[in-house]
Amino acid sequence: MDFRDLKFFEVIAQEGNLARAAEKLFRTQPALSKCIDRLEASMGAKLFEKDGRGMRLTVAGNVLLSRTRQMGLMIEDTAREMRDHAAGLKGHIRLGCVPTLAEHLLPQILHDMLEQAPEVTIRLGVAMNDALLAGLRGGEFDLVVGPMLESDQEFVSEQIVEDQMVVVASKQHPLFAGPYTMADLLAYRWVLPATTVASRQWLDQTFDRNRLARPQVHIESTVLNMILPVIEKTRLLGFASNANLRSPDTGLREVVLEQTTMPRRMGVLYRSNTYLSPAMVRIAGLLRLHGTSLLRE
Fold first, then answer.
1. Minimal CA–CA distance to 242: which of 199, 278, 284?
2. Residues 171 and 127 in one domain
């Protein structure tokens, strides 16, 4: 089996179309057809089936795609490890982070990295936890800083800090004129992340458990922290980390309800089978060392 055939197979699977794959790989369609034939002969199973004008993976094809991606990551890690042995504390880190920690935690961590390892370069991606995990799984990120995962053998999680997700509103919001309950929150529209995000799922399920309708979303955002100023100036409600309320300049206030307070453990996550470069070990160590104190300042 030729590893080049496997890489071609991965692109064909992603595109679902030989013509598009040929254009992307600068190969002819007949050459890619022969690649598929060789792999199917080697595996003893069909890898694709027709799907309209395109093609889709069979069960065997999906297994091979997963294994191909794992092999690609292993080869990439091996090459990086060899370079690291030659170069010392240098290299490149692809770091993913949830918005709250990117704003309140990473500036000091990145400052420390610049002082301790000035030859290390970093590509930072800020997104919600669903996109970060997909990127970590697919090799887009080396490390992710975000919510801890429970008993997921695919990833290693190391806790660095705890915070709480709470309902937030403008300090001038009518809710604060008197007592309020969870049901009162439904009189207003909300700013929330997508339903694939863990905090949104928790909030929706909380209203379900209390036999209430789910919040009515007016703005759905992939990066909620950027929208917080909108909540400060309107009657919209949001669900955000209480770290956003610690600034003396904030125009936000917590809508205090025990039922809608979500404890959250945040950590450093990486693939369980990945190679941790010296640079990755250094930045993970800084996160563990300073995470709690920095977020509580």
1. 199
2. no
Does the pTM of the predicted model rise above 0.85?
no
Q: Tell which residue, 178, 169, 164, has the closest CA to residue 258.
A: 164
Give 86's contacts (C-beta < 8 A, 6+ positions apart).
none
Would you give the end-to-end CA distance of the chain in angstroms?
A: 56
Q: How many domains does the chain have?
A: 3
What the block records as the tokens of 51 is 């799907």
d(CA 88, CA 102): 27
Exposed, middle or buried by CB within 10 Å (0-12, 13-18, 19+), for 180? middle
Residue tagged 């040929």 (tokens): 22
What range defines the domain where residue 85 resides? 76-161+265-296
DSSP secondary structure letter of residue 150: S
CATH number, domain with residue 54: 1.10.10.10
E strand intervals along the chain: 48-51, 54-57, 91-97, 120-126, 143-147, 155-170, 190-192, 217-220, 237-241, 252-254, 262-271
**176 within 8 A of 251, measured Cβ to Cβ:** no
Q: 117 and 237, same structural domain?
A: no
Rounded-to-integer distance, Cα 175 and Cα 189, Å:
13
Instruction: Give residue-wise pLDDT tens across range 100-137.
Output: 888 888 898 999 988 888 888 999 999 988 899 999 98
Task: Work out the angle at residue 141's Cα, subtended by the Cα atoms of residues 135 and 147, and round it to the nearest 5 degrees.
Answer: 70
Q: What integer pLDDT is reported at residue 233 of this predicted model?
A: 94
Total H helices, total E strands in the chain: 11, 11
